[in-house]
Design a protein that fits this description.
Length: about 775
């Protein structure tokens, strides 16, 4: 016999199991040597290694060994077929294995009538069907085979063998007294089993529900999103209604209102959170914010305007006068097509702030559009709405910002617009400025025509040269030139100081900057035509003073010429002073740059060579040609000045203009170069206190130049006492304040001999 662990074999059951106990293997070997029959009894405790009678169940099964296979690790796999049930009577251990005495008493026959048997068969069949529905392990195929049996005994036995039962259950079935008891035990087991499965299912369900809670949150969130979307539709709708209302209240033509209503209708058709609807909203809001027909009341009080202009700015008499005339005409004609003002001048001379003042004087809204660096036509005219991130152009955006159709629009830096492959910016600007067209200005983004005819345009520029010609033609240029040191002093005292003291949180009594200090700042710490640097320096002093007052507890700070360095550090600029003595080949010219005037020392040297002209100091083309003209003119003076006929063939002439890092160009150094060359060639010194400016022709005529005021200011700074000026410029001098020319002698010339007459220290 073999004691079985955790396995009960029933009659007719075919199965294999592994054995490894020595006694079991020996028993199988012994059985194989005889009739291959072996008795299988299940251990009550599977862990017992050496079970005796007491530890074995009472009933077992005799079985036929069908197959024996040796597996590695001393394991033997035995395949058996259960044959007959038997009661274990005794166990003996000898010859190395167990011997069982078994009573194969036949069990009682069942004595039920046919109907009862049928009823019992059907009852089991029903149970099996239900069981198979609950237990996946009990497959449909197995059920079908069982149901085919039909016979009570066969069905009961087959069910006992094939149902997925546990060892103890099988044992109980094996031990049943007869088939009826077995049947009853089996049914009870099935019912119990099904209950267990049901309860198991319920428990699983509960567990699952608990797990589902986490899922729930997720689902809820999803739903919340949906709800939000639904609600979004709602806000979208209420927004759309709001837009419609706003459109109705707009001061605009029916065309505009209709367009807005149409766009709002489109918005309604879009999903609440789509990107497209955001774009659409933006568009509608832009349309709603444009001024259309809304106007502000202009002030026509010229006296008040004059007062405000005077209040805000010192000097600038010509500019203010011109502006007032312009305003007078404007209010008389009551029409928008007056020319566009263009304020031209160096940086920091108050162009922008004059424009702001004008807006204040007229009670107009003020918007500023800076065109510096604008190259793309779309910046002025807007992008079409089909572009991603399309925006209205600067003009339309300016109108939106102004909120009325008649603001003062400052177009800053018109000279800095440029055109490239992205379209013609100046053409777009022309359309803006043209009174014929600008009542129906079309912005690509806005799509509807915008009326610009009532806008007061004021443009600013540093230099008229770089403004495209057709644009310049449309505009009325008002020049603002640089300020004299004296003007700067007044501006500082009256305006800048006050502004900066306020801006830096000081009180008027807390800071005093004396007149010599201001003069010191102007001459030593700024170099400019305007007053921006000056304002910044004053701001710097204010900040230092504020700190001093807080840290040291001083009541007030007084900045004088003497302690200026304490606040601003060492002096930054020293103006080129006139030379100490008359020198050969060195002449002081006067230059004009967009930031103001400067003096320019021109040096000439001659040396033996091959008659070449060397020019250094980063001269532009115009200046180079001017130098050549100057040389040619000097050569033509050969006889008059007794120059050796061979001189120009045997000597090189080198013209140099110091500060080589700064590019220089323009014709106005012509007479200066000619004088310097002649001086070098004939070795006659030039007066150190003379400066000059003027264009030269080949025949020695002197032509007019520009930027005279700045040049004279620079000359004065340098301590020059005599300035040679082209006769043609005499008229300009009349417009320049007396203050500028004070202490300087101006000599008007028509020809080079007149220049030389004055400039050369000794007559040849
Ligand atoms: P621009 O536009 O010519 O470059 P801004 O108008 O910006 O110069 O002027 C720079 C600063 O100088 C401003 O603070 C302005 O108020 C001041 N300013 C310029 N000119 C005057 C003036 N004549 N009177 C008073 N303040 C002036």
């Amino acid at each position: 016999m073999i004691p079985m662990r955790g396995l009960t074999v029933l009659p007719t059951m075919v199965l294999h199991f592994d054995i490894s106990r020595d006694k079991s293997i020996k028993a199988v070997e012994a059985a194989m040597a005889e009739d291959q029959m072996i008795f299988l009894v299940t251990q009550q405790n599977p862990d017992d290694n050496n079970p005796g009678l007491r530890n074995l169940y009472n009933f077992g099964v005799s079985a036929r060994i069908r197959n024996v296979a040796k597996l590695p690790k001393n394991i033997v796999r035995v395949m058996v077929e259960g044959v007959e049930r038997g009661r274990l009577i005794g166990v003996e251990d000898y010859d190395g294995y167990l011997h069982a005495s078994v009573d194969f008493a036949r069990e009682r026959e069942v004595e039920y009538d046919e109907i009862t048997r049928l009823a019992m068969t059907r009852g089991l069949e029903e149970l099996l069907k239900r069981y198979s529905q609950l237990n996946q392990k009990f497959g449909k195929e197995m059920l079908r085979q069982l149901l085919e049996l039909g016979d009570f005994e066969k069905l009961t036995m087959a069910a006992c063998v094939h149902l997925p039962l546990r060892c103890e259950q099988r044992q109980a079935l094996l031990e049943a007294e007869d088939m009826v008891e077995r049947y009853e035990r089996l049914c009870t087991m099935l019912v119990r089993e099904m209950e267990v499965i049901q309860i198991q299912g319920e428990i699983q369900q509960k567990v699952r529900e608990r797990v589902d809670k986490n899922q729930r949150e997720y689902v809820l969130r999803e739903q919340a999103k949906l709800i939000q979307e639904e609600l979004g539709e709602d806000t979208q709708l209420s927004d759309a209604n709001g837009y419609d209302e706003q459109a109705e209240q707009l001061c605009a033509s029916d065309e505009v209102k209709e367009k807005i209503h149409k766009e709002v209708q489109r918005l309604r058709g879009l999903g609440g959170s789509s990107a497209e609807s955001a774009v659409q909203r933006n568009y509608i809001e832009t349309l709603l914010e444009l001024p259309w027909d809304k106007v502000s009341e202009d002030s026509h009080d010229l006296k008040r305007a004059a007062k405000i202009l005077d209040e805000d700015h010192y000097g600038l008499e010509k500019v203010k006068e011109r502006v007032l005339e312009f305003l007078a005409v404007r209010s008389l004609t009551k029409k928008g097509d007056s020319p566009i003002l263009c304020l031209v001048g160096p940086p920091g001379t108050g162009k922008t702030s004059v424009a702001r003042s004008i807006a204040r004087a007229l009670d107009k809204k003020y918007v500023r559009i800076s065109l510096g660096g604008v190259r793309d036509e779309a910046e002025i005219r807007g992008h079409r709405r089909t572009y991603v991130g399309a925006m209205p152009g600067r003009i339309a955006a300016g109108m939106r910002q102004a909120g009325v159709k008649n603001p003062l629009m400052l177009i800053d830096e018109v000279d800095k617009v440029s055109s490239d492959y992205r379209g013609d910016t100046s053409a777009a600007l022309l359309e803006v400025f043209d009174s014929e067209q600008n009542c129906k200005f079309r912005d690509h983004y806005v799509e509807l025509p915008i009326d610009l005819s009532e806008v007061l345009f004021i443009a600013t520029a540093n230099d008229t040269q770089t403004i495209p010609r057709p644009l310049l033609d449309r505009m009325e240029v008002i020049e603002i030139s640089g300020y004299t040191a004296n003007e700067k002093l007044h501006i500082a005292k009256r305006h800048l100081l006050k502004k900066q003291i306020e801006r830096n949180g000081l009180k008027k009594s807390q800071l005093e900057i004396t007149k010599p200090a201001l003069e010191g700042i102007i001459s030593g710490y700024t170099k400019e035509a305007g007053v921006r640097q000056l304002e910044r320096r004053i701001g710097q002093i204010c900040r230092k003073a504020a700190r001093e007052i807080l840290e040291d507890g001083s009541k007030s700070v007084r900045v004088s010429g003497k302690n200026l360095e304490k606040y601003l550090g060492r002096k930054r600029y020293t103006y080129q002073k006139k030379n100490a003595q008359n020198e050969i080949g060195i002449v002081r010219g006067l230059a004009w740059t967009s930031v103001g005037g400067d003096t320019l020392e021109i040096e000439v040297n001659t040396m033996p060579g091959k008659g070449e002209l060397v020019l250094t100091g980063q001269l532009g083309d115009v200046m180079k040609e001017s130098a050549q003209a100057a040389v040619s003119y000097v050569r033509s003076l050969g006889e008059q000045y007794d120059i050796d006929a061979e001189f120009f063939a045997k000597n090189d002439i080198h013209v140099h203009i110091p500060e080589g890092a700064v590019p220089k160009d323009g014709p106005s150094a012509g007479i200066t170069m000619a004088t310097a060359i002649l001086s070098a060639v004939v070795q006659i010194p030039v007066r150190a206190d003379v400066a000059m400016t003027g264009e030269i022709t080949l025949r020695g005529r002197v032509l007019a130049i520009g930027g005279l005021k700045e040049k004279l200011l620079a000359a004065k700074q340098a301590g020059i006492t005599t300035v040679i000026v082209p006769e043609e410029n005499r008229a300009d001098i009349a417009e320049i304040d007396k203050e500028v020319t004070e202490g300087m002698e101006l000599v008007y010339v028509r020809t080079m001999p007149e220049v030389l007459e004055v400039a050369l220290a000794v007559r040849a």
